[in-house]
Amino acid sequence: MFGISFALRGLFFTLLTCLPMTSWASAGSGEMLDLTATNYGIIALIIFVIAYILVIGEEFLHLRKSKPVMVAAGIIWALVGFAYASHGDHETASIALRHNLLEYAELMLFLLAAMTYINTLDERNMFAALRAWLISSGFSLRTIFWLTGLLAFVISPIADNLTTALLMAAVAIAVGAGNIKFISIACINIVVAANAGGAFSPFGDITTLMVWQKGIVQFQEFFALVIPSIVNWVIPAIIMSFAVPKGAPQALKEEVHVKKGGFVVLGLFLVTIMMAVSSHNFLHLPPVLGMMTGLGLLKLYGYRIKQFEKNSSEATYGPEVASLTLETDAENLLRLYKPRNKPFDIFVSLKRVEWDTLMFFYGVILCVGGLGTIGYLAMLSESMYVGLGPTWANILVGILSAIVDNIPVMFAVLTMNPDMSHGQWLLVTLTAGVGGSMLSIGSAAGVALMGQARGMYTFFSHLKWTWAIALGYAASIWVHFLVNGGSI
Fold first, then answer.
1. 62: how many CB neighbours lie within 10 A of its CB?
2. What does each C-alpha distance from 227 to 110, 157, 381 come to in angstroms?
3. Which residues contact 253 (CB under 8 A, 6 or more apart)?
4. Of the candidates 362, 433, 358, which has an alpha carbon nearest to the alpha carbon of residue 401?
5. Residues in Cβ contact with 139 at an 8 Å cutoff, skipping those fewer than 6 apart
């Protein structure tokens, strides 16, 4: 390991010392340079590849995926800055970086609001109540297979595919009770359904959110992908359903009560979504404005919940306990006032946001943006969208999403901004959203479920059904051309 590290550092510094001898594209101040054939560009590409290899190996290395891409982003933009400064241009790199930072800021704040709502709904036991109802119902394994898939498809357009997949997988694991064959195939079905459901909604997946925020596809236009998304899930689900074990496990007795304000929070979330859509469609403002306003409403309502629960705890434990704080009397607070009884705090929901994921997006967006500034995305656009044509290029995007990750792939496409028809933009939205289902590592939902159902849902158990998922992938593309052919 030390030898490899030393060799890589040696390669980096050797190339770095050769930089002044690099030939430059002719460009004046403020013009974009083609740095793809320079040592700056080559080193940046090597750094990105190394970082993404570490991201792919997260499960084995136990290294958070945000760490390598954040470091890579800093190095890549430093190389871009050196390149332009050496050419006497001290503005272009800065302008390009600020543009990428603005795109990330809009995405991060949007996701921050959405994740806080999801965490609050979870804290109010909304998801736990749904899970308890399913595992207490006494349904057969085949019925649970279809129900978890259907609910994953229906919930993911609102909640997001990762949260939905984790919720439904918890049901499958509880009902399966050690039945590895059922749990494995149910998890595959859930991943496919959650990704397919997220493909026709800006709130269902990061890729669709990026397309919507970019203004390329309007909110209502995403629903043109509903039928292709259904086909994408239903075809492999029908094929896999024949392998679901027969029988009905004994119903588990579990009763969960939704905490006060749970349904109000759900209503506020729907209002927030409407505000985000309205600010984008009617006011022509970034949708993040509506989301952050909705987060403010949630914080105001959270204050009411907190006051109610604080008054309830005062009635239960006495005013001397309710008045304690960690700052004034931590020892007595922890002794008398257990954490599970603490009043609602919206900042706990904020703290539980997937910060590693948000920082990963920062790294990815800046890495891809840096490579785009160097000129690699223009080169890629020329070879894919001109060489292959938009249809085959967009189909290839979906396949790449299964191997790499749909977020950097889609951001690269948006940065390239190829000249395509509206139907082709819908096609790449579909393929980037559902293509990751072909492999367990191709989507956040699949990676998360491998951890949740460790030893039962694995890369190879998913690979066994890749052919059926690929059949659904191909069929969804065919149906898209059939249904939305007029816009292609």
1. 7
2. 27, 14, 29
3. 136
4. 433
5. 147, 175, 248
